[in-house]
């Protein structure tokens, strides 16, 4: 019931902007930080799903376009691209956004300029979604103010997605206020979908702040910055920060974004750890006054799995089990906190790594070299088919099922599936299927081909 009401509210919000058919441009963050996990999924995947849901209710006839940044090159402030000019069909925006691979920096100001230019003198709405701070322009708020002076019909809405950095929040709020727009925060997929709907509905500029400026942020006692490489943008969300005084753990992570407050003068150690690796501690001395700073270079990059079936190339990344395999074992003191991290994107130390994809008894493996600050997409072709298995005549309880490859002794499946039709993935080949329940037995053979579904019914023998 609640889900139905929420969907209805989203639909009404989106339709509220329909009469004017004012064009809109979506600006989507595809910087490297979008690989950080949110609810055990990369932020970029969460954002893509939320975008598809929100745009599924986009008002018919209202033009929509897409600008993205950080999706082609690392450490390049010019990596801003108009992917979809303002047009009446949102399907093109959904398709373009789904293909983005985060790689680089966060040039929000330049992306805002290009989105405004795409709208032209007639103006319209710019909906900016970002998970980080501007890392290329010294004053994105001034850019928004300049655009507002040049076009009274331009409005910018900022959505802070999984963003805890107060500087980043202040930047988005300031850009919105300069153009009479609104600022939203979204901590998860549901809130992002709602924020997109509300931003779409607020199509007309409201009162504009005469001279907006980012609000001052209270100074911390210690600021810790994590970077994948020398010159890389700061990262957040994937690595923990451990602050110790002597052997005592004082604080973790910082509140927020690597900022630690209320620390007395003294000597501290700062260490960064990720699910897969950790870096040696850094010594920091805090004086009686002033701000201490520490920077840790993780010397790491992103390894992203792209698992596709053969021969058609259908993407099945989200429905397989993935394992990271370091080709050179890490020393004990450098190992991370998770032996088997989940997800399809892995923050790995620079070097050569392997990934293994599994579904049923089908496997695919591949290796890649990852440099610090780099995003490597590793293709893993996999071959499997699906057995659609029914069981009849075994009584009220489902029988135990074993599935064994032809000419083998060890089964690859041994379970009591409860579904009326059990969908079981298997590598191509011939399999013997046996079902047993309280003395009732049944057998069948199945030939599995890649990307095909075979329907088999195992009946209990009379």
Automatic annotation (TrEMBL):
It comes from Neoroseomonas alkaliterrae. PROSITE patterns: VWFA. The keyword Hydrolase does not apply. Residues 23-199 form the VWFA domain. The lineage of its organism: Bacteria, Pseudomonadati, Pseudomonadota, Alphaproteobacteria, Acetobacterales. Residues 1-21 form the signal peptide. InterPro entries: VWF_A (IPR002035), vWFA_dom_sf (IPR036465). This is Ca-activated chloride channel family protein. Keywords: Signal.
